Amino acid sequence: MKAWLGLVMAAVLTATGGTAYAGDAGDATYGVVTSEYDLGDEAVTLPGGVKSELRAKVYGPKDAPGKRPLVVFLHGYHDACYGGDQKQRWPCAPDQRPVPSFRGYDAPGRELAKHGYVVVSISSNAVNRNVSKTLDAATRLRGELVLAHLDLWKHSSRVDLDNVGLMGHSRGGEGVVAAALANAARPHPYGIKAVLPLASTSATRQALPGIALNLITGYCDGDVYDLQGQHLYDDSRYDTSAPKSQVLLMGANHNFFNSEWTPGQAEAPATDDWAFNPDEEPCGTATPTRLTAVQQQALGRVYISGFFRWILGGEEAQGKLFDGSDPNVTSQSPDRLDLARFDQPVSTTGDLTATVCTGSPSWLPDPNPELPFCTENEQPDRFPHWVPSFFLPTVPNPAITALHWTGPGALRIPVNARKQYDVLTFRAAADPDKPSTFTIRLIDDQGHRDVAVSLENLPGKPENAQPKTLLRTVRIPLKTTNLKAVELRTANEGRAFISDLALSTPSRGRTTLNQLPRISVSDAAPVAEGNSATKVNFTVTLNRPSHQQVTVHAETAGFTADPEIVLPLTTTITFVPGETRKTVAVQIRGNTTAQPDQDFKLALAVPRNAITDDAWATGKVLDDDTGPNTQHDKQAPALPPRGGPGYRGM
Fold it and tell me: By CB neighbour count within 10 A (0-12 exposed, 13-18 middle, 19+ buried), where does 191 fall?
């Protein structure tokens, strides 16, 4: 193995020194060399016995001294094979070829290598063919595949595994989040410091505190058209250790970030995922507001490379791309003072009212029944902050404040800052039907300064699940050292949504993910149905006591069991300081009718003051009645614990 890796590294870089990389002075650039490695279609066994390829394209800086930062790219869900009978399988049939999705990120790969980074873009075709065999749509498998590749690179003296970044596209976005969480549970974790979900899904609602996180979202995404990756930012944004940001790229679709998913560039068949009217702005291919593939890939190169150069390389000039200066960038710095999250009631005067709200109507149960909807619009795909998660539709959504004014009014937030900050920031969105304007008044000992704020609506038509309502950062530079209060003042009629008022200074922060307590849920023992009420007990544990209160959402997930037998559960589990063990009871309603056994799942999501480790567990209700519909089967095998039997790393 070491000899093999040495050959790969010899092909991608030549090191002349032994010191760790600490940023190249003067924005040094290098020649770029590339190579590939391929250990076979079934080279590693992942949890659940899934056999996966270990295949990657490597980009490296030629003649770069010292150990270099390592960035891993992970593509998302796509066809694994093409040609032949067109059926999807793994390994591919003899008359088929694997789809080379891992070769599609040349632009950011070369850009990072030019600036001194080693980039490993990995193939995950086997994982994509095993989605239906897993509890969580293969999210954990993707994460473990990333770690299997990092395990290969620990044999190299040329990369710095204490300075690692991860980028994941589409379902790969959740995959790299899963990799960072799984890495934290290892006895000797790698130094993962930055995670970038690109056009990501968020079906499992895992938060990622304690690490730098940047999302890139295409407004014209025709695949993840509800922009559900927004949840990754919302669920992680109150981190006080590392920065969180989100880049909204107007005119960008889902596929064109990867050249192997782009018509005219791809080796295998490829399509434009935006399938609506080509003549309709902003996303129609015949309109000037839609990005071409080349334009989109150029922007992807800038933002993907810029994020890792900022966090891993300390290039502060790159950080300006992510601090909220651009109105299409949402940002939350760890160096901040939260003034008002606007998830609790605030007082107003005059003709201004403020209502704490969340969500919009959908066919799923309301996850926040105690709060009113923020909008009565029945197109949840237009409201990414509140779009239901596929697996966990009752996870509580972000609560914000809806403002409505018919004339002059104000709300006032006092300030008691013990240090000087650079900017005042908050997130806001216009009423879905029209623009909004108001004034922010900054009050200090010398008087006040008024700043006009104008919120514009995003473009698009309802039949295309647009326009989206997205909270975006409003950023006001501070000119005072003694701010006493902030007022929002209104004049004419209007509506707006507001959240997260804070004073802040841009900062790269520090990585604390591996230091946080970890929450796990264990599989429950099978239970006989009985003829009346019983229950299935799951055990939820913290790996160590915490000095802070820890909460986590728990929900029966997957829509696989009869809700008349397995009663749906959604609850918040709270660990007070010192507690490490909780029992969650899922109620069972027995009967005397012969039916199949009931398999179901319990999932954990959006923890606070902790991270999830094993977030999914299985339960089973055994039917104990007799008749023609009786079906007794074995309990579906649970995923083995990381590092335990059934898992084989390299």
Answer: middle
Q: Alpha-carbon distance 473 to 103, whole Å? A: 34
Average pLDDT, the chain: 90
The HSE-up count of residue 114 (CA atoms within 13 Å, CB side) is: 11
Contact 90, 40 (CB under 8 A): no
Exposure string for 69-80, b = 16+ CB within 10 A, e = fewer: bbbbbbbbbbbb
CA distance 247 to 303: 8
* Rounded Cα–Cα distance for residues 24 and 22 (Å): 7
17 φ, ψ (degrees, to nearest 5): -135, 175
Structure confidence at residue 634 (pLDDT): 39
What interhelical angle do 293-311 and 106-114 show, nearest 10? Answer: 40
- Per-residue pLDDT at 134: 87
What are the beta bridge partners of residue 37? 56
What region does 210 belong to: left with phi over 0, alpha with psi -120 to 50, or beta?
A: left
Three-state DSSP at 325 gives: coil
- Axis crossing angle, helix 171-184 with helix 139-153, rounded to the nearest 10: 60
DSSP 220-270: T-SSSTT-TTHHHHHTTTT-SSS-EEEEEETT--SGGGSGGGSTTT-SS--
Distance of alpha carbon 542 from alpha carbon 377, whole angstroms = 40
Those residues with Cβ within 8 angstroms of residue 485's Cβ, 6 or more apart along the chain or in another chain: 412, 413, 414, 415, 443
- Whole-angstrom Cα distance, residue 637 to residue 619? 11
Q: Are 358 and 398 in contact (CB under 8 A)?
A: yes
CA dist 411 and 404 (Å) reads: 12
| 3-class DSSP state of 175 | helix
In whole angstroms, what is the distance from residue 580 CA to residue 595 CA? 37
Strand duo 570-575 + 32-38: pairing: unpaired
What is the H or E stretch that residue 300 is in? Answer: helix 293-311
> Amino acid identity of 64?
A
| Domains within the chain, CATH numbers bracketed | 2-16+29-332 (3.40.50.1820), 336-504 (2.60.120), 516-622 (2.60.40.2030)
- Residue 12, both tokens: 């991608």
**Pairing outcome for strands 570-575 and 118-122:** unpaired
> ∠ CA(30), CA(33), CA(38), 5° rounding?
145
Strand partners, 340: 501
Q: How many distinct helices (H) and strands (E) make up the chain?
A: 8, 31
Spans in the chain with pLDDT lower than 50? 4, 13-22, 25-26, 632-650
Which residue bears the tokens 């946080």?
516
Backbone angles phi, psi at 334, to 5 degrees: -70, -20
**Tokens 């770690």 map to which residue?**
147
Return d(Cα 560, Cα 70) in angstroms, integer: 41
d(CA 329, CA 310): 15
Task: Output the 3-class SS for 81-97.
Answer: EECCCCCCCCCCCCCCE
- Relative to beta strand 336-340, strand 494-504 is antiparallel
Give the HSE-up count for residue 227: Cα atoms under 13 Å, Cβ half-sphere: 32
- DSSP E strands in 75-191: the ranges are 81-82, 97-98, 118-122, 159-169
